[in-house]
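dumping this here before i forget
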Amino acid sequence: MRSVAGAGLIVLLLSGTAIAQSSAAPPAATPAASFGHYAVAPAYDGVDSKSFYVTMRDGVKLAVRVDRPTRGGQVEAAKLPVIWHHSLSVSQQLADGVGEGISATREFPKLVRYGYVIVQVARRGNGQSFGAMRGYHDRNEAQDAFDIVDWLSKQDWSNGKVGIYGCSNTGDATMHALTMRPPALKAAFAGCFSWNKYDAFRRGGVFAQWGTGPTRSIEQDMKVTPVDGDPHKVQLRQAAEQHQQATPLFQMWKELPYRDSFSTLVGSRFWAEGSASSYASQIRMTGIPLYIMGGWHDELRDQAFITNLNIPGSHMVIGPWKHCQNPDFAMLEEMHRFFDRYLKDIDTGIDRDQAIHYYTMNAAAGSEWRSTPVWPLSNTSPTSWFLSDGGRLGQKRVGGGKGVEFTVQYALSCPEAGSGSTVQPCHVNGAGPSFTSAPMKAATEVTGNPVADIWIETKAPDANIFLYLEDVGPDGKVTVVTEGRLKASLRKLDKAPWAIPGDYPWHRAFAEDVQPVEPDAPTRLQFDIMPTSWVFRPGHRIQFTVAGADHRERAREELKPAPVVRILTDGRHASQVMLPVIAAGR
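structure:
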């Protein structure tokens, strides 16, 4: 929550009760404090690090690493604010191999030299911690987070103010800590996480996401550094053996095709249990300041905007980045600026920023970074682009089209797309038909959430439809800008139970909502395309490619023979995509 100042008071909501606190002017920061810039000299020259176990309410021991600042070899004796990470390991060496300067959350322990106690806690069933994972971000982990915050606030090196940060699965862990409303938690930074797990990991009802969490062998777990006092890895071995009792997440994801699916593995409707959206009122009730980070090349980018809409007062940044990677941007400085404001009461200027900072790709040099108080932007013009026979794309509806037919291609290869959490969508020649515009006469900016309205016919009882918005350069090079998808049998529209940007189509996707496709009957598919901010430069062309399969699909049911799908283009069934265009001069 962004604190609301007035009449010398700051009003915060804590445990459902309004509490008035003095708002005497915070200490001023360096003049260099602004978005992405926070040039503060470190106050300490060293770090004292200790690791050990803390026992939870049910006897499970979690590994904890505490970094405290030192000066001249002496540990700071004063009580300091604490920032912690609900991580997968308390080791500095982490499994994903993200390099220094790429991920601010990996570099975050550096802030210990600026007067913080930095703490890493390995989540139960991970790293050096004991226990087993039940699902992914279940209420066991949330309760652990509450207990850890309480414990951190009471240590003799803590001043009682606690912050939390994380990205990817630890970003989700950050959000689940908020749902528990721990009184000592005063600020949270979460990057590349899910607001609603079904929409994030079964987007459009299609299983084409990487994120089923860590699956590690005992041998892999034994490679992490043990906590202090366990030099022979005796406790580490015991913990690693317990990890093998974890819920097999890939199997669990497969048994949950609908938003209301019940998991026999964990005994709950886990999409609801594991989603921050289920606890939105609790998060809002805390009033804890939240900073959200996203990336235009991250599969969870839409979740950032939805969270921003549903948690009033939250800060947000989204740049031209892959999952949890922030090259060429001082994200660590921005995180430092955020926590200094809310844990040290320093005026870093963040209260006066607009809510959202976003990067527009291909914008004129020096104008890439913009800010806005709202999303969608108020100056967009919804513009329809119609798919026509012959692969044409235009802004005029063309009647009498016969449609464009294609056979679903399952054998898709895209080695340049990468793998794991940073895997990218890919244009694969022959995967499906492309519809291409004439070259742009002027720079055309698309910023917001596009919406697809596609009509299909097929003899198959179902179809997965993928739609890619692409930029075709003068040299013919195709770049995927953004994408959307929908399982045809889950096309029934409903009203979202939380705020969504611009009221785009939303699908409840309960088991009872399934509508099999009638053979050769026109079937309308309305679905959102993930947000973007992209300039199509003069001479470039806008292109939509439609496919019936994607190289990222997992546990796909391949029909034999492969189904034939027709994209309808006639006057009564005009397939089109709405793009949010920023008109010139607006």
